[in-house]
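#onboarding

Welcome to the new folks! Below is a worked example of what a typical request in this channel looks like: someone posts a single protein sequence, and someone else replies with the predicted structure as tokens. Don't worry about understanding the tokens yet, we'll cover that in week two.

Example request:
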Amino acid sequence: MSFARLADPNLTSDRLSWLLVSLVLVLAPHVVRLPLWVTALFVALAIWRLGAARVGWKMPPAWLRAALALGGFAAIGLQFREWGGQEAGIAMLVVMVSLKLTETTRKRDGVVLVLIGYILVIGNFLYSQTLPTGAYMLFAVWVITATLLHLNHPTGGVPLAPRLRQSGVLLAQALPVALVLFLLFPRVPGPLWGVPTGQDATGGLTDRMEPGSIAELSQSDVVAFRVEFDGAIPPRGQLYWRGPVLRQFDGRAWTQGLDLLAEGFTYESRGAPVAYEVSLEPHRYRWLFALDLPAMVPDEARLTRAFQLYDAEPVRERKRYAMESHLDYTTGAETSPYEMRYALQLPRGGNPQARALAARLRDEYADPRDRVNAILLYFRTEPFFYTLSPPLLGQHSVDEFLFGTRRGFCEHYAGAFAFVMRAAGVPTRVVLGYQGGELNPVGDYLIVRQSDAHAWTEVHFDDVGWVRVDPTAAVSPDRIEFGASGMAELEGRARGALGELAWVNRLRLQWDDLNNRWNQFVLGYNRDRQRELLEEFGFRDVGYRTLVVLLVVSLALVMGALGLWLFWQARPARVRDPAVRLYLKLQRLLERRGVLPRRPDEGPRDYAARASAANPALATAVGAFIDAFVQYRYHPAPSAAELAAMKQALASLKN
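Example response:
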């Protein structure tokens, strides 16, 4: 419908109110990302415009609107240093919507604002694509579509309930088209349109470990990744999810240092590898997580000599990859002198008591295995405690922990163990990752959260190579058996009264399963998934040209089916009343005789009088028909005689 043809072009107060409600719904998710002044500008001008409609306030003069426009655009440029980026573009649109309100007086102005509202809905998905975001944006589209119907109605608008119902029908009719576009639109590698999605990284492990760094994650329920196993899930004690390997110590923190890509290292496995698929949340770094020892390398990834997986690019979007790992293995004795020197590196000074302990171990035990067992026995027999709230440590952190506080989280035990072992001449490195996970029986997969973050060590023996040693298990076997969440409950940090209820926990797992399905089947529908779907229907090696043909043909079929359905719905209803069918025949007959069509508000006798006046020769037959019709329709006991009289009158009119 052309804007110029809209009857009653002025924007009424009711229509303006619903327009503002729609805009508020669309803009609400953007508020947390917009500068405060942009939100304040929209609120102020929306109140001003509503006051002009309801109370009679004067609209802002032209000079003020121009000043606000120039000032707003200048402020965006100063704050974002650009006008065309993702954040700056959204802010610019909101400023434009705010300023447009100051000159919105006609229906077509409202329609323009609704169309900008649709663009802002799309813009929100550049930041978040979660299931709640999708549901909320669908609700917003439903409301603004109803507002668009309200604006375009030729008279006073559409009542709320019919308006929302009609908007829902329109969205339901568009659903098949949207589904075809989703399934068949050619997928390209990378984010949509090459624009980063802005999806928030989960936060979590970094490539640096110092006392307290991992303990901060112990209370975080944020999901790090989910894992689906091909078969039974291994025991919790074997679920060590390998991440960054730290080999350099500066006296306070452990860092990665230089690592080399794997070339020619050997290992010996015992038993078949475990197959699984990881759905990794974004974390801004390049490393991928896998069980020890990776038996394969995902596409575009690399494996280092420390058995750490690196992706080609930082993981800024959810990534899904298939893996196989060996849980029972030996890495072999072949190790370069460079690696050995790196695995024995320590700063020149600091922690004298720990160095003295290492010297005693070295003098007392010639076998490196005995030195390892001795320090583990020291952890078990001395009053060490595993706690999620470790005390702060000073300059000589290892000494203060080993001989003072003796209370710590996994990074305290791993760091202290690695320091003493290196000082005792045993090559050692620290491994960061996650240990354990929570089984979701609803979807039969494992949920690994940030609270499962863990640090352990690996020591090198000349005959077998690198061997995992978890000092935390020596102090707190429950950490490995029950996980970090179980330890939190032991320390009195349960989730609360609601968290203890079985139905609440079940609901939580069902929600996670729903989110996981959304991630896999909607957000994770990439080029490979599209190819797999088409192969199920017999299409092999589908290129872009074939995809476009399939898309066009499918859209034509869907649109054709939808058009036939709408045509069927719009067909005239079959009249079952015999008297009404005869009445309609009379009207068609009279129209052929020059009588104008019956008006919707015209009763039978008024229609008969008008027809008789237009063509007096028909007055007798028309009067007889109408008398019989009224008698049949309104008499308590109609009979076939009236129907016969109507048919006879029609027959006389045809002659």
